[in-house]
Amino acid sequence: MKLILAIVSHDDANGVIRALTHDGFSVTKLATTGGFLMAGNTTIILGVEDNRVDEAIDIIKKKSRSRKQAIPTITEPGLSFRASMPVEVNVGGATLFVLDIDRFEKI
Description:
Elements: E1 2-9, H1 10-22, E2 28-33, E3 40-48, H2 53-63, E4 66-71, E5 74-75, E6 82-83, E7 87-92, E8 94-100
Helix pairs in contact: 1-2
């Protein structure tokens, strides 16, 4: 058995969860915040039999999309702050961790 931790964009989370549960996966959803943009993410936790790991990953890939977002930058000349040209960055997609599970019990 494997434990998959999938960190997905808040915008994609409902679609990912819906698709996973539709295909028989049990999921736990945690609201999390990313460090780079301090934007809302969702961490999805699911226990998966070894033979279904690739299936779960494929679903997450299909339902998580990367997108571009403009973020403002701030310069600090002296004591005053002023906005400068926004920078475009890629956001979204998914970050996955697949971990081995030594023991699993449902109580």
